[in-house]
C-alpha cells in the first residue's frame, strides 16, 4: 500500500473520468457493486494505519454517485465521527455538494447538535464545517442555522466563541435583512472583538451593513483604537478596518477616523500609516485642506529627503490617488512653500520632490504654474545648492511635457547650468538634459554634444574659441580634482546620447579621452548605457580601447565594478577580432578566481555567452579553468 498512499492513482483516474462514466456507474449492477465496495472499505477504517485510512476516505468522495451511496457514506461518518472528527468533518463538507436537501438537513443537524460538545476542538470543528457548508444551503436551511445559533447564544447553551461568531456572520450576510441586524446587535453586545479578530476576514459581513447599522460598528472601532489598555494587535486591526471600510463612512465619520488615526501615526506600525493614507484621500474639500495643512506643518526641518520624513513620505504615497480638486489644493500648498522666501529650505526641497510625484496628473495650467515657480528659484541664483538642483530636475520633468518657448528656455537654462560653480547643480542639469533629449532637434543635439565634449577639454592653456562652447567658463573655475569627478559624469551623459551620435561625433569623443589618467573609467562610463549599439559604430582601434578599459576594470578594487565589467565583456566580445577575443577569454578565466562570488558568476556567464565563438583549444582552457560551482552559470548562459 505504500505507493498507493503516496500517489492515489485510482483517486486521480476516478476524478478525471467520473463525468464520462456517470451513465456507466448508474447501471444497476455497477451501482450495487459500488455500494458493496463502500461496505467493504468501511471495516478497513478500524485499522491503525492512518495514511491508509485517509487514502480510503478519499476514495469515498468519488463513490458518492447517487442518493443511496451518499447516504451510506453520511451515515457511516456520523457513526465514527468521534474517532477522527477532523477527517470525517472534512469528508462531509466535501461531499455536501452531492447531497440532496434532506441529506443536507441531516448533516447540518448533526453539526449543530455537536456545537454543545464540551471538547473545545470538536465544538470549533463543527462551527467551521457549518461555515463551509453554508454556501450550499438554501434560504430555509440558512434560517434554520441562524435561529439555532441565535437561540443558543441567548440561552448560553453554547459558548460564544469566535468560530461560532464567524458562522453567524457568514449565515446572516447571506440572508441579509433583519437577520443581519440581529447578528450585528449580537456581536456589539456579546462579542465586539469579532469585528477586529485577525483570524477572520469580517469585511464581507461589514460591507453588507447599511449606513445606520455601521454607526455602532464605527464607534466600536474608534473606541478600541483610542483605548490604551486594549491589546496592541486589536488596535492595529481596528485601524486596518477603518481604512478598508472607508468607502462606507460618511463625511463626519471620515473626519473622526482621520483624527483618530493621525494620533496613532507615531506608533511604529505600517498598518496605521496605510489606514491613514486610505482615509485621507477620501476626505472632501475643507477636511482634505485641513489634513494637508496638518501634514505639511509637521515636516521635519532637519530632513531633506521625503523618504526620511514620515509626514512627507505619507504625502508622497497618497499623491497618485488625488482627485482633481485635491490636486489643486496640494499644488497650491506646494507653490506657496516654494514662493515663500522665509520658508525653511528643507521644507522647500521636500515640496519640490513632492511636486515631481504629482506631475503626471497635472494639467497644462498646473504645469505652467509649477514651471514658472521652479524657473524663478533656479534662475535667480539661490545660494542653496540642493534647492537649485532639485528645481533643475523638476524643470526637466515638466519641460519634456511642454512645447515651444518653455522647452527652449529650459534647454538653454540647463546648458548654462553645466557651467555652474556647484557640482550638485551641474549634475542635476546634466541629468535633466538627458530627460529633454527625447525632444531635441538637431541644433540642440549639436549644442549639448559640444558642451559635453568641452567637459573633457579642460587642459592648461586650453581656450574655447567657438561660439558653441557653452562650458567655456567652467574650464577657468574648476580645479584638477573637480575636473576628474566631472569627466566621468560627462562620459556617462554622452553614453545616453550615443544612439543619436554619428561616427564622426564618436571619433571626437574618443579623441578627447586620450591621455586622461582616468581614461579607462571614462570609457566604461561612456559605453555602459548602450554598449551593443555603440560597438557597431566604432573602428578596431576604438574597440581595442573599450576592451582594454573593461579588462582593466576586472582588476578594480570595487567588486561591483568588476562584476559589471565581466558582464559587459560578454556583451561586446561577440564583435571581437581573434586577438581581442583571446585577451577577453584570458581576462575572464582569471576572473573565475576572483574572491567575490558574483564576479565569478558574471565571468562564467560571459564565457558561456561567447563560447560559440571560441576555438576548441580555447574551450578546453575554459573547461579546465571553470570551477564546479560556476558550471551552472556557464551552461545556463550558453543555452540562452
TrEMBL record:
GO terms for molecular function: lyase activity; oxidoreductase activity. Keywords: Lyase. It comes from the Eukaryota. Gene3D superfamilies: Leucine-rich Repeat Variant (1.25.10.10). It holds the Pfam family HEAT_2. HEAT repeats lie at residues 584-620. Catalyzes the hydroxylation of the N(6)-(4-aminobutyl)-L-lysine intermediate produced by deoxyhypusine synthase/DHPS on a critical lysine of the eukaryotic translation initiation factor 5A/eIF-5A. This is the second step of the post-translational modification of that lysine into an unusual amino acid residue named hypusine. Hypusination is unique to mature eIF-5A factor and is essential for its function. This is PBS lyase HEAT domain protein repeat-containing protein. It comes from Reticulomyxa filosa.
Amino acid at each position: 500500500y505504500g505507493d498507493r498512499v503516496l500517489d492515489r492513482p485510482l483517486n486521480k483516474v476516478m476524478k478525471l473520468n467520473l463525468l464520462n462514466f456517470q451513465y456507466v456507474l448508474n447501471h444497476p449492477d455497477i451501482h450495487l457493486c459500488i455500494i458493496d465496495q463502500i461496505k467493504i472499505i468501511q471495516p478497513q477504517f478500524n485499522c491503525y494505519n492512518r495514511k491508509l485510512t485517509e487514502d480510503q476516505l478519499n476514495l469515498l468522495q468519488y463513490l458518492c454517485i447517487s442518493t443511496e451511496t451518499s447516504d451510506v457514506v453520511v451515515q457511516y461518518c456520523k457513526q465514527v465521527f468521534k474517532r477522527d472528527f477532523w477527517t470525517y468533518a472534512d469528508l462531509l463538507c466535501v461531499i455536501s455538494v452531492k447531497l440532496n436537501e434532506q441529506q443536507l438537513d441531516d448533516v447540518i443537524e448533526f453539526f449543530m447538535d455537536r456545537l454543545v460538545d464540551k471538547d473545545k476542538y470538536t465544538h470549533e470543528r463543527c462551527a467551521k464545517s457549518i461555515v463551509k457548508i453554508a454556501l450550499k444551503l438554501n434560504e430555509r436551511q440558512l434560517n434554520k442555522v441562524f435561529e439555532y445559533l441565535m437561540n443558543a447564544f441567548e440561552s448560553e447553551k453554547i459558548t460564544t466563541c469566535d468560530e461560532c461568531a464567524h458562522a453567524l456572520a457568514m449565515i446572516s450576510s447571506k440572508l441579509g435583512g433583519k437577520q443581519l441586524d440581529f447578528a450585528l446587535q449580537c456581536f456589539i453586545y456579546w462579542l465586539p472583538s469579532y469585528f477586529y479578530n485577525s483570524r477572520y476576514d469580517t469585511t464581507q459581513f461589514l460591507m453588507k451593513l447599511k449606513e445606520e447599522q455601521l454607526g455602532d460598528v464605527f464607534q466600536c472601532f474608534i473606541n478600541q483604537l483610542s483605548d490604551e489598555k486594549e491589546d496592541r494587535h486589536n488596535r492595529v486591526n481596528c485601524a486596518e478596518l477603518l481604512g478598508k471600510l472607508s468607502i462606507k463612512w460618511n463625511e463626519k465619520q471620515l473626519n473622526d477616523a482621520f483624527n483618530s488615526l493621525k494620533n496613532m501615526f507615531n506608533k511604529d506600525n505600517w498598518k496605521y500609516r496605510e489606514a491613514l493614507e486610505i482615509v485621507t484621500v477620501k476626505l472632501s474639500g475643507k477636511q482634505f485642506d485641513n489634513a494637508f495643512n496638518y501634514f505639511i506643518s509637521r515636516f521635519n526641518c532637519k530632513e531633506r529627503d521625503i523618504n526620511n520624513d514620515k509626514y512627507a513620505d505619507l504625502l508622497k504615497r497618497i499623491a497618485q490617488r488625488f482627485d482633481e480638486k485635491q490636486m489643486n489644493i496640494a499644488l497650491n500648498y506646494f507653490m506657496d512653500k516654494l514662493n515663500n522666501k522665509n520658508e525653511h529650505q528643507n521644507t522647500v526641497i521636500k515640496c519640490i520632490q513632492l511636486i515631481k510625484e504629482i506631475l503626471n496628473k497635472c494639467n497644462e495650467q498646473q504645469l505652467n504654474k509649477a514651471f514658472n515657480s521652479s524657473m524663478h528659484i533656479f534662475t535667480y541664483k539661490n545660494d542653496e545648492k540642493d534647492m537649485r538642483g532639485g528645481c533643475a530636475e523638476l524643470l526637466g520633468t515638466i519641460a519634456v511635457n511642454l512645447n515651444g518657448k518653455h522647452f527652449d528656455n529650459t534647454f538653454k537654462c540647463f546648458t548654462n547650468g553645466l557651467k555652474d560653480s556647484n557640482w550638485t547643480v551641474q549634475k542635476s542639469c546634466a541629468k535633466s538634459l538627458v530627460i529633454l533629449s527625447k525632444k531635441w532637434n538637431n541644433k540642440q543635439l549639436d549644442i549639448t554634444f559640444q558642451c559635453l565634449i568641452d567637459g573633457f577639454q579642460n587642459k592648461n592653456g586650453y581656450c574655447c574659441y567657438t561660439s558653441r562652447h557653452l562650458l567655456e567658463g567652467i574650464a577657468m573655475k574648476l580645479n584638477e580634482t573637480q575636473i576628474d569627478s566631472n569627466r566621468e559624469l560627462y562620459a556617462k551623459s554622452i553614453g545616453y546620447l550615443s544612439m543619436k551620435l554619428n561616427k564622426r561625433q564618436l571619433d571626437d569623443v574618443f579623441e578627447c579621452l586620450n591621455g586622461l589618467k582616468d581614461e579607462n573609467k571614462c570609457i566604461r562610463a561612456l559605453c555602459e548605457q548602450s554598449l551593443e549599439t555603440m560597438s557597431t559604430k566604432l573602428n578596431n582601434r576604438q574597440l581595442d580601447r573599450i576592451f582594454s578599459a573593461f579588462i582593466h576594470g576586472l582588476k578594480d578594487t570595487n567588486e561591483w565594478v568588476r562584476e559589471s565589467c565581466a558582464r559587459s565583456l560578454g556583451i561586446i566580445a561577440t564583435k571581437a577580432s581573434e586577438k581581442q577575443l583571446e585577451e577577453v577569454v584570458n581576462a575572464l578565466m582569471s576572473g573565475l578566481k576572483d574572491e567575490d562570488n558574483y564576479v565569478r558568476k558574471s565571468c562564467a556567464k560571459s564565457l558561456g555567452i561567447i563560447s560559440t565563438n571560441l576555438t576548441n583549444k580555447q574551450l578546453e582552457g575554459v573547461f579546465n579553468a571553470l570551477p564546479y560551482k560556476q558550471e551552472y552559470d556557464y551552461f545556463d548562459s550558453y543555452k540562452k
